[in-house]
């Protein structure tokens, strides 16, 4: 068991949360069990958060603020900890995504997140951890967020229209082992057969004529307004400016025309899969 001296608040935002939680609890003269009773969690859970073995949640942070009489303090700390997991603007994007009636996606290097199988997600996030680009906690939380998004999309009735254009590199880049890639490509073939899903491949042969230098998403909301989101390696951008979104929509229309047609795209995906199977 770690003690207060062993936990460095500068190690991570969640470590800072744990140190502050323990300090506030001790200032009140409460045991871990005593705090746990007041917030509806177990003493084991409180201990895990204090020692950075379990990440805090928004509900936990709000209950801690109520117990200590510190309106917003721990919730603000929780929100700061989230910034290391999700890009700025992404949480607002997620709220719009959940309400959208149509999604138009473009991805460059990996299969779009909403179309990824769990094994593909784990392989990609695991590589980030091994390279030191992410902590295991951050990777696990990003995975959980993605799986929740997929579940929300699958359960929505009526289902939104999902149109995804993938650069050829998404299919050629190996993520995980051979079996993972075969399963992922089979999943794309199955998705393409669904009536509300359109998949297209943007081949390498488009060269400089391919629009968009970065992944992007265009959402159509129930009131027909649009919301855009794009990412670089380090930052996310939420776009609501109508003129910019109109430019994105025009470029996406061009991309749809230049990409392989729907049936040819599915056959392209199938050919890549067969190449892996027989390679």
UniProtKB/TrEMBL annotation:
SMART domains: HTH_XRE
Ranges for domain HTH cro/C1-type: 21-74
Any single Pfam family the record assigns to this protein: DUF5753
CDD domains according to UniProt: HTH_XRE
Annotated GO MF terms: DNA binding
Name of the protein in its database record: Helix-turn-helix transcriptional regulator
Organism: Streptomyces kaniharaensis
Phylogenetic lineage: Bacteria, Bacillati, Actinomycetota, Actinomycetes, Kitasatosporales
């Amino acid at each position: 068991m770690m003690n207060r001296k062993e936990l460095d608040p500068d190690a991570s935002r969640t470590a800072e949360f744990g140190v502050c939680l323990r300090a506030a609890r001790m200032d009140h003269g409460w045991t871990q069990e005593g705090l746990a009773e007041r917030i509806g969690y177990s003493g084991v859970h409180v201990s895990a958060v204090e020692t950075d073995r379990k990440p805090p949640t928004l509900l936990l942070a709000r209950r801690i603020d109520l117990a200590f009489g510190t309106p917003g303090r721990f919730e603000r700390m929780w929100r700061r900890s989230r910034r290391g997991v999700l890009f700025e603007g992404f949480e607002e994007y997620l709220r719009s995504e959940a309400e959208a009636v149509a999604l138009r996606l473009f991805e460059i290097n990996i299969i779009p997140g909403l179309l990824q199988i769990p094994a593909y997600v784990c392989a990609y996030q695991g590589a980030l951890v091994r390279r030191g680009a992410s902590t295991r906690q951050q990777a696990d939380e990003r995975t959980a967020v993605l799986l929740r998004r997929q579940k929300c999309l699958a359960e929505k009735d009526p289902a939104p229209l999902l149109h995804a254009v993938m650069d050829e590199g998404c299919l050629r880049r190996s993520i995980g082992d051979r079996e993972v890639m075969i399963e992922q490509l089979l999943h794309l073939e199955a998705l393409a057969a669904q009536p509300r899903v359109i998949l297209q491949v943007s081949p390498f042969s488009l060269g400089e004529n391919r629009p968009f230098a970065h992944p992007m998403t265009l959402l159509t909301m129930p009131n027909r307004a649009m919301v855009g989101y794009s990412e670089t390696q380090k930052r996310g951008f939420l776009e609501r400016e109508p003129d910019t979104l109109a430019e994105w929509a025009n470029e996406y229309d061009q991309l749809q025309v230049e990409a392989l047609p729907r049936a040819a795209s599915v056959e392209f995906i199938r050919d890549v899969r067969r190449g892996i199977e027989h390679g």
